[in-house]
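Researcher: Quick one. two chains, 948 residues in total.
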Amino acid sequence: MAKGITTREQNYSQWYIDIVLKSEMADYSPVKGCMVIRPTGYGIWENIQKHLDRMFKETGHQNAYFPMFIPESFLTKEAEHVEGFAPECAVVTHAGGKELEEPLVVRPTSETMIWAMYKNWINSYRDLPILINQWANVCRWEMRTRLFLRTTEFLWQEGHTAHATEEEAIAETEQMVHIYQKFAEEYMAMPVMVGTKTEQEKFAGAVKTLSIEAMLQDGKALQAGTSHYLGQNFAKAFDVKFQNQNKEQEYVYASSWGVSTRLIGGMIMSHSDDNGLVIPPKLASLPVVFVPIWRSDEEMELVLKNADEMTQGWDKLFFKIDDRDNVKPGRKFNEWELKGIPIRIEIGPRDCENKEVVVVRRDTGEKVTMPMEGLLPKLEALLDDIQDNLLANAQKRMDENTHIADDFKEYKKAVKTGGFYKIHWCGENSCEDYIQERSKSTIRCIPYNGEEEEGECIVCHKPSKRRVIAAQSY
Amino acid sequence: MAKGITTREQNYSQWYIDIVLKSEMADYSPVKGCMVIRPTGYGIWENIQKHLDRMFKETGHQNAYFPMFIPESFLTKEAEHVEGFAPECAVVTHAGGKELEEPLVVRPTSETMIWAMYKNWINSYRDLPILINQWANVCRWEMRTRLFLRTTEFLWQEGHTAHATEEEAIAETEQMVHIYQKFAEEYMAMPVMVGTKTEQEKFAGAVKTLSIEAMLQDGKALQAGTSHYLGQNFAKAFDVKFQNQNKEQEYVYASSWGVSTRLIGGMIMSHSDDNGLVIPPKLASLPVVFVPIWRSDEEMELVLKNADEMTQGWDKLFFKIDDRDNVKPGRKFNEWELKGIPIRIEIGPRDCENKEVVVVRRDTGEKVTMPMEGLLPKLEALLDDIQDNLLANAQKRMDENTHIADDFKEYKKAVKTGGFYKIHWCGENSCEDYIQERSKSTIRCIPYNGEEEEGECIVCHKPSKRRVIAAQSY
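Model:
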């Protein structure tokens, strides 16, 4: 247990806050619900951006930027959309010293602004598809906030695509949720359940919402990314038609999809321990840190010289030699452990004599002595191993904590302890509401490609054709 | 002259608007003064970000993110700052369906928020320096806007550094303006004048402001980047002290510096012509486009096969083969010319027989036949040549249009035709005001490392020790 960090067993929520603040990932700001993302945290976001952006571009998307202010009247054009978002908006009523004729909302999401622009850009099927993504800040005025997981302002990406056919728009929606799944698993080492949200839980304005749901260490679910098939809803709201190949006017089909800085909260709650952060190597801004150990100036010179020589030609962003001489090695160990750096390398005078170093992996704490010669490929292999191990652990946790439940009383009791529960549900809103009210848990998704299975709704016992995933959530 | 583009001679302002809109760099939005940056324009911004971000990181800076909302009272803590920025702020008065206790302004710049946070992070000289940069959107409610050059919302980066000594903070301020200069010249092919702003033109809250000033094709100046030495002004406003090495409490010294999407406007007005955009190769998202030419299906197969074979192993982001079969080659030429792609390659059936292609450079329009074999290094060299040529042209323009002026009447007449004028100025606000009122031009900067030269103020004829740069500006 690290100094100043509450253990998970003592208080899981406080543990999370301690980790975020002490590792300097983020800080509270003077504006209620808004956070400051400090360099340690922002470095993770930069890596998330880098990899996702590449995946988006490889699938033909381009980035653009739309205004953060949206005329209030735009929201009202799509009936469900305004109902979902208007209560959460921050509203600019004055600007440049004057009251505005029409108030502007700070974007909670950009469908309305973007479809107002698409109206000008789309005339013919030749203008389609439009595959645009935006990296931006958005604002949703939340009552209860939590660092990274739910903040009033957050950073995200929002893709907004326009298509000539329903099939193409649905294929895009599915493609993007699977890109999110791939990213979560391969880069964040965070396995997810892919599925469809219920009618009541879908995005305000969507025909269908797909999501990825992660299971965090306390067994709660985190909706970590969503991809919406919007049908022609926004095209109708903003009168966006195109001439199809048969020279007929038709409304355009749409998708939108997004992930946010919430992912960082998911990463922290997936892997970290009572000693601090654990960062998956593929998201680490700094994969390797050297902590040289010395007791005299001669020893200092010796170990630093050896560390310098060993790392000749290495990528400067791959490692750092922590040569601060006003901080003791033990304190450095704790600091880097707290900050979740995947590999720590200890190098002292005797190591220099033996031409070896002590390599410590953050995930297991395991120490191995390795020869200095040929170290780089061994470290790269170790980083891969750490990445794999984190994913395997998270997968194991998910598997072990995913249960079948058929009795509502038992379910209600069990779900409080965390975990995913596969339950039968008839599809009625009233039964979904009942689950939420009685058990403080929700239906997270209807699993994608889920097997059909005849059964009875856990609430009303009417027939059900497949199991859904229910859990407590963030 | 391209279809639908006003020539520069006809109407320079309209030419600029035509270029921006027709090349799909940007579009007007439904919110007054806010623009939409379309993929073509955003690709340029991504390249600007990529290169500048690397230069920032190489000089030890890290990225972070601070809230976009700032409590209104924060602005008032620094007297000059509030006077400069309060009139331009957009104000959020309502959020989450309620009136806020204290209104929030949408950041016009983030000194106040960041120094409110630095107060929590700085205790000792050991916590210094802090070298943080932020990529973000900001809002300044402008009355008269112009695409890219002056918009209500814009994208920028803002560096905010904290130091233990005045010397270090000044050195940082100077380092950053020189990074901007280097970036403008090496990447944007846009030579700039580096200098100090006058007391009246400096940043609201700064001790001293350095800027880079570019000369655009109409001879007007564009302030393209600024770096401010803030002294202890914000440290005093937010009570940020540190214990120095002598264990004394001292206020922290600061710098801030920024460039914005305005740079894209500067790039367009530096290089483009009556046929459309001209993009410096180092900022081009797409350096090379192939336009295959065919008249029959057999010819199509032949030229596409040759184009594919030639480009085997090339970086996919380096080139594109425009194989649209519903658009004629001539129209493709115009489109890519309008979009400013540095190199166009024409490849027809006879070229395939001769194993050669026709290479057309965008800057001069010059056509050269090159053998298919060994083409890539030749294209790379040509791109370098285009980059150099654009810089040389812009430098020539700046040199030819920088004049000495000693008589105010003559200056007043001359400055209307554009160009930079080296004039003597006594340093008094009243003479600076006189220049602005009578000639609609301003003192752009006091050149950095400018030579001392005895002279008389162009307005009051009192002694002056050096010449300053005056010009009309955007």
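Chain B has three domains: 12-271, 288-378, 402-471.
Researcher: Thanks, that's what I needed.
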